[in-house]
From TrEMBL:
Belongs to the sugar phosphate cyclases superfamily. Dehydroquinate synthase family. Its EC number is 4.2.3.4. Its cofactor is Zn(2+); NAD(+); Co(2+). This is 3-dehydroquinate synthase. HAMAP family: DHQ_synthase. It is found in: Cytoplasm.
Length: 378
C-alpha cells in the first residue's frame, strides 16, 4: 500500500493506492465517513454515490457489499458512460437528485468511476449548498493517475472543453489498482498517455522507465501498474501543492499536450472517435514536433517521444483522424483555452525530455500553419 499526501493549507488529503481497496471500502472510506461525516447521513447511514453504467456494473456490487457490512446503504446516481455526462443536463439532474435526497453541506458525495464521473461529481459538490465534501474512488487508469487528484472539476459546454468548473479538492482518494483489470485496453492506453506525460514534462528517468515498462503496465502487471500509479500521483501532488490554482505557471505544465488535444477533442465532437487520453497523446506529439520546429527540442527527442507513445498503441498522427478542417480551424478552438492571457495563449513546449516550459510568445497563426502541415502529412 502507498499513501501520497497532497499538501494544501487547510485542505490536505490522502491518496491511497493499493489492490483491493474497493473490497475494503468499509474500512477505508467507512472509517473516513465515521470521522468526517458531520451531516445527516451518519444517522440515516445512506450515502450518495455517483457512477456510470460500466463502473457500476463492474464494481458497484463490491462497494455496496463492503459498505452494507458496516450498516451503510448506498443511494446510486448512475449515468450513461462517456464524455456526454460532463454536461449542463446531467449536472442539473445530479444536483436535483442530491437536493431531493436532502444532502447537507457537511455531507460527502462519492464518485465511483473514471475522470468523467470525478469531474462531474466534484463540480456538483463544489456548487451544492456552496460546497460539499466529496471522495474519489477512481476506476480508470486515467482517473487514478490524474483526474482524481488536484481538484480540477468541470463540465464541457458548446464553446469548449472544461469551460465551466471549479477548483474543489476531494477529501480522500482511494485508487484501487485491481479495479483496472476490467478496463478495456483502449481505456488503459488513454490513462497511460497521462502517465508518460509526467515523464515528458518533468522527469526524464520516469520517461525512460515508461519506455522500458510501458508494455507491462498495459498488460496489467501488478507491480508495474502500482509503480506507474504511485509515481504519477506523487508527481501531480508535488505540482498541485506548489500551484493549486494554476497561477504561477507550475501547474500549467500538467497541460502538456492539452492545448492541441482539447482542440482535437472539440473538432471530433467529444465522442468515442477520439477519447481524452488519445487526444493528449497526439497533443504531446504535436507539442514535441512544434518545439523541434521552433528549435527548442532536438529532432531526436521529438522522435523518441513519438516512438514511446506509438509503442503503447496510441495513434500519433492527426492525419489519421479523417478531419476535414484546416489548421486554422483547430487553432480557433484554442481561443477558448483557459490559459488565454491578455489575448495571447501560452503553450507548453519542450527543451528536452523532462524539461517542459511555458512559452508566452507563440503566434497562433504560426501554430495554425504548423497544424495544416501535420494534417497534410501522410
Ligand atoms: N480533473 C482533472 O484533473 C482531469 C485530468 C485528466 C482528465 N480529466 C477528464 O477525465 C475525463 C476522461 O476520464 P477517463 O479516461 O477516465 O474517461 P471515462 O470516465 O469516460 O471512463 C472511460 C470508460 O471506462 C469505463 N470504466 C470506468 N471504470 C471502469 C472499469 N474499472 N472497468 C471497465 N470500464 C470502466 C467508463 O464507463 C467509460 O466508458 C475527460 O473528461 C477529461 O477531461 C480530468
Ligand atoms: O490537473 C491539471 O492541472 C491538468 O491539467 C491535468 C489534465 O490532464 C486534465 O485533462 C485537466 O482537466 C485539463 O485541464 P484544463 O484546465 O485544461 O481544462
Ligand atoms: Zn488530461
Amino acid at each position: 500500500m502507498a499513501d501520497v499526501k497532497v499538501h494544501l493549507a487547510g485542505r490536505s488529503y490522502m491518496v491511497r493506492v493499493d489492490d483491493g481497496l474497493l473490497d475494503d471500502t468499509v474500512v477505508q472510506a467507512g472509517e473516513f465517513i465515521e470521522r468526517y461525516h458531520a451531516g445527516g447521513y451518519d444517522s440515516r447511514r445512506k450515502i450518495p454515490f455517483v457512477t456510470d453504467q460500466n463502473a457500476f456494473a463492474h464494481h458497484g456490487e463490491i462497494v455496496a457489499h463492503s459498505l452494507a457490512s458496516d450498516g451503510y446503504e448506498i443511494d446510486w446516481f448512475i449515468t450513461e458512460p462517456g464524455e456526454g455526462a460532463k454536461s449542463w443536463e446531467v449536472l442539473q439532474e445530479l444536483i436535483d437528485w442530491l437536493l431531493e435526497r436532502g444532502v447537507e453541506r457537511g455531507d460527502t458525495i462519492f464518485a465511483l468511476g473514471g475522470g468523467v464521473i470525478g469531474d462531474l461529481t466534484g463540480f456538483a459538490a463544489s456548487i451544492l449548498k456552496r460546497g460539499c465534501k466529496f471522495v474519489q474512488l477512481p476506476t480508470t487508469l486515467l482517473a487514478q493517475v490524474d483526474s482524481s487528484v488536484g481538484g480540477k472539476t468541470a463540465i464541457n459546454v458548446a464553446a469548449g472543453k472544461n469551460l465551466v468548473g471549479a477548483f474543489h479538492q476531494p477529501s480522500l482518494v482511494l485508487a484501487d489498482t485491481s479495479a483496472l483489470r476490467t478496463l478495456p485496453l483502449r481505456e488503459l492506453r488513454c490513462g497511460y498517455a497521462e502517465v508518460i506525460k509526467y515523464g515528458i514534462l518533468g522527469d526524464a528517468d520516469f520517461f525512460a522507465w515508461c519506455e522500458e515498462n510501458g508494455a507491462k503496465v498495459l498488460d496489467h502487471d501488478r507491480e508495474a501498474v502500482k509503480y506507474a500509479v504511485t509515481s504519477s500521483i506523487a508527481a501531480k501532488a508535488r505540482i498541485v501543492a506548489e500551484d493549486e490554482r494554476e497561477t504561477s505557471g507550475a501547474r500549467a505544465l500538467l497541460n502538456l499536450g492539452h492545448t492541441f488535444g482539447h482542440a482535437l477533442e472539440a473538432e471530433t465532437g467529444y465522442s468515442d472517435r477520439l477519447l481524452h487520453g488519445e487526444a493528449v497523446a497526439m497533443g504531446m506529439v504535436l507539442a514535441a514536433r512544434y518545439s523541434a520546429q521552433r528549435g527548442f527540442l532536438s529532432e531526436n527527442d521529438a522522435a523518441r517521444i513519438t516512438s514511446a507513445i506509438a509503442a503503447a498503441g496510441l495513434a500519433t498522427e492527426i492525419s489519421s483522424l479523417g478531419m476535414t478542417c484546416d489548421g486554422q480551424a483547430l487553432a480557433d478552438h484554442m481561443l477558448h483555452d483557459k490559459k488565454m492571457d491578455g489575448g495571447t495563449l501560452p503553450f507548453i513546449l519542450l527543451r528536452g525530455i523532462g524539461d517542459a516550459f511555458l512559452d508566452r510568445e507563440v503566434s497562433l497563426s504560426d501554430v495554425a500553419a504548423f497544424l495544416s502541415e501535420q494534417l497534410a502529412a501522410a
